[in-house]
Description:
By secondary structure, the protein is an alpha+beta fold. Strands 5-4-3-8-7-6 form a 6-stranded antiparallel sheet, with helices on both faces. A 5-stranded antiparallel sheet has the order 10-9-13-12-11. It has a 5-stranded mixed sheet with strand order 15-16-14-17-18, sandwiched between helices. The protein starts with a strand and ends in an 11-residue tail after the last helix. Residues 1-16 and 555-560 have low confidence and may be disordered.
Amino acid sequence: MSRFLLAGRPMYNMKRRVYRKYLSVLLAVACIPVLILSAVVYFVGTHLVSQEITSIQQKQIVKNASKVEEYFSSIELIASQWSQNELFGSKLKDLEKGYDYAYILQIYNALFTMQGSSPLLKQVYLYLDSSHTMINQVSGVNRIESAAVIDQLHRSLMANESPAYWMNGLGEPVNAEQVPLFVYRLPIDSEQPGAALIFVLDDKALQHAFSELSLSQKGLSLLLDGQSNILMQLYEGEQSEALEQKVISRVSSGLPSVRQEGKIEVGHDDYLLSFGQLSRFGDVWTYVNATSLTEMTRPVTFLSQLLMLLGLAGIAVAIVLSLIASRTVYHPIERMLKLVRSDKESNDAHGDEIRLIEHQWNSIRMEVNQVREKLDEQRPEARAGFLLQLLLGYTNFYDELSLRNRMRRLGWIVDEPCMYRVILFRLEGFSQSSKQFLKGDEQLATFAAANIIDEISGDVFPHYELVNFHDLTVGMLTTEFADHHAGEGMKAVSQMSGTITNAVHSILGMHITIVISKAVRSVAEVPEAFEKCRWMLSQHKPNPSSAIIDAQDYVLEEDQTIHYPFTLEQEIIQALRGGEQDLAALRIEQFCREIEEANKQDQVYYQCLAQLLGTIRSHMLRMGFNPFRQSDSLASYEQLTKLGDAREIVRWFSDVVIAPFLEEMQQRDTRHDHRMKTIVQSIIERVHKDYADDLSLDTFADEHNVNGYTLSRMFRQETGENFIDYLTNLRLETSKRLLAHSETSIQVIAEAVGYRQTYYYRIFKKKFGLTPSQYRAEAQKGSYDGTNESST
């Protein structure tokens, strides 16, 4: 009964009111939309979808029919243009008198050009009636000896009064009995033509063109000439004689003068019928398309019926669930009330539970604001700590977005386009400034110099941060907005440097060396800029006077050297060793892009590619593969210099250089499968025993006298991981057990599993989302469940 009482007030009556309200809302939300949706889909959806499909089919028919008509028109236009060529003029009579090789060669070329001018053309013939000769670019010049064939060709090609016409099929020697032909008699300026160009259509290409008229996989397409002879017939799906008869009957009942649509019923299927006419040199062709409307609407019909049944079932389920949900929906309010209510307060003090929760929420918010104020007080120290980590490279495993988010939380302005500049200050002549500082006061002197730099920089830079290294060195990170002029930032830094130099000399009696980096656009580039400044500062000998060094001057000297991406080269070799052709191609593409951006001279660009080719072939030789046995291998470097596009270079490397190597390595894997499995098992045992040692797959390959590529593939096949990931996971899991069940220092544990402490911290956090010390604390409390482990 105590469950239904709250602060002395019976909960039952109040809960029943809330329960009825929740029950009504849940029933309305659950049932009414299901009823409306089911009815709309069942009664309206099928009809609308049917209309939409019909409309789409009609538009598709008009579009594709126009495309097919353009194909035929293009063939007629080609014939008309070539008929006016002097090759097919009066010179044809000379060809009848004697054999002219050069002239026939020109005709061959012209026929070949005609054939390739349209995707519907299969062959083009030239027929000479007087000499009974048929010329084709494939079969050559053939003289017809059969009188029956000569008579047939004369009647089919020369007896027609029209100079150009379409016909359905032609026997020997064309052998195109069921294929539409277009005939153009020659010469066009002669009253009695003695030759004819014969354009034979490709039946497969024609069927493909007409197959685009249908939206479904079940139907029929016909092409009829003016005498209702079938020029082309195409079935989609199963053949149906009943469908063909009905379609032909519908067309024979009366050919329309414009495109029309209708429906016919064959069995239990409805077909959408569309047909139209094509005017072709005095003849009228009719195209007919019957598309199965039932098949296209079947999924919608089935879905609507299914939704209706599911809707009825859903209503029953919704009623039951609403009863259950309404009884439990009040529980969060009750739990919230238990969390925020104190023992000294009751509901009567605030009216009801919601007002009590609101009162307590305001109190909690005030406490949060107080905590936030305390955090703001600690933010400068947190900013300095983060900046120190950033400059020293401890945040290299974070991406640009993560770094900007952390900087945003610490108060940096990173949303606007901005650039970052690193400035490094070093005090000089500390040993001579015995008046102000004694030996061992380096930290005090650095602190004083940092205060001077901070005071002067505040008048120059609106956004900057200092970090005190306590070794007579001070670092600074400035933020410059990208919309400022490129030289304004450097000009302000130079003026500030001069002011700081004078102030430090006059106040502390020491000189100062200032190194200024170039402005970088990303936070991830800041550690590299800092390292360059620190290196330049280490190379600069202390002088009796102050010095200002611009790091950009040194960058210009570095740009004159040749940049070669050795890291990418090693990744390409590693991909080859793992048999990953796609990854190797991706790394080669990155290699080409990097050397192209870094080296502007073509000679240097191709020399780098030649160096990469030599490295890959050297690796192949070590793997026992001979890359020089191909006939064109000696000309590979010449081929490489002729490839201009990066995509062609990547494709050439992948197909010509890498693919044969991987294919042979795969064949070797098959031959040595059993032996390699035994070797892999022995390697796994060795890894579990000596995981802390410096182990590599190449060392094991040398020990067992096997191919490193084959061993890598077999190891991944047996374990599901490559060797490096397997060894890394084994080391990290072992270190987790040591962290959780021992008090050994983290440095000792890192060395025990084969890592340096700094690298161990980085890879452990990347894997599990926690540092080793955080994991040890969570594990000893028993609250770590592994949910923070990185997917990578």
